[in-house]
Design brief:
heterodimer, A: mainly beta, 7-stranded mixed β-sheet, 4-stranded antiparallel β-sheet, globular, B: mainly beta
Chain lengths: 113, 108
């Protein structure tokens, strides 16, 4: 079945880095643009980044531009989010998303001092 | 940036009633690329509607989406107990691909 599975979350210190992965299955990954979205505890959904189906273009929210990098490997059906210079405000559940298809179950990132 | 405003913030209804949720955009959404999601506590969001009115796979036909341009509506014809949750709209016509702030549908 169609599935997205995130991994790579955890506890990281302020100023640290983390790389999230999103493994896709059940659909033709290389045909779809992919998004990262996050949700801080008790808050709404915040769109973070988008990458086109072929990786040719990337778009970012202002809140993460210059710190986060979205990438993909179509040979591995995997999406990535490299997160640098993390702060407490980045503490959230991180989801990968194909808007017209499905969401992953999320991976929790906690930034602590 | 397109700002999406959802209303009401909270909607209190009873099972069997009809629910109407609104999502208003600050400017026209390209190609009516507007999606609706449902999120229950402790779960990931789930796609209900995309392209304003296309029902996602496996979504019951009591859910319907309508609208175009700047005004969009999600209608649930007869509420079931499992429908009480938070609903979000998202536009994906132009970056940044913004979300509304959500409407909480609660049992009256």
């Amino acid at each position: 079945q169609v599935q997205l599975v995130e991994s790579g979350g955890g506890v990281v210190q302020t100023g640290g880095s983390l790389r999230l992965s999103c493994a896709a299955s059940g659909f033709t990954f290389r045909d779809y643009g992919m998004h990262w979205v996050r949700q801080a505890p008790g808050k709404g959904l915040e769109w973070l980044a988008f990458i086109r189906y072929d990786g040719s273009n990337q778009y970012y929210a202002d809140s993460v531009k210059g710190r986060f990098t979205i990438s993909r490997d179509n040979s591995k059906n995997t999406l990535y989010l490299q997160m640098n210079s993390l702060s407490a405000e980045d503490t959230a559940m991180y989801y990968c998303q194909v808007i017209t298809v499905t969401w992953g179950q999320g991976t929790l990132v906690t930034v602590s001092s | 940036e397109i700002v999406l405003t959802q209303s009401p913030g909270t909607l209190s209804l009873s099972p069997g009633e009809r629910a109407t949720l609104s999502c208003r955009a600050s400017q026209s959404v390209s190609n009516n690329y507007l999606a609706w999601f449902l999120q229950k506590p402790g779960q990931a969001p789930r796609l209900l509607i995309y392209a304003a009115s296309s029902r996602a796979t496996g979504i019951p036909d009591r859910f319907s989406g309508s609208g175009s341009g700047t005004d969009f509506t999600l209608t649930i014809s007869r509420l079931e107990p499992e429908d009480f949750a938070v609903y979000y709209c998202q536009q994906y016509g132009h970056s940044p691909f913004t979300f509304g702030q959500g409407t909480k549908l609660e049992i009256k």
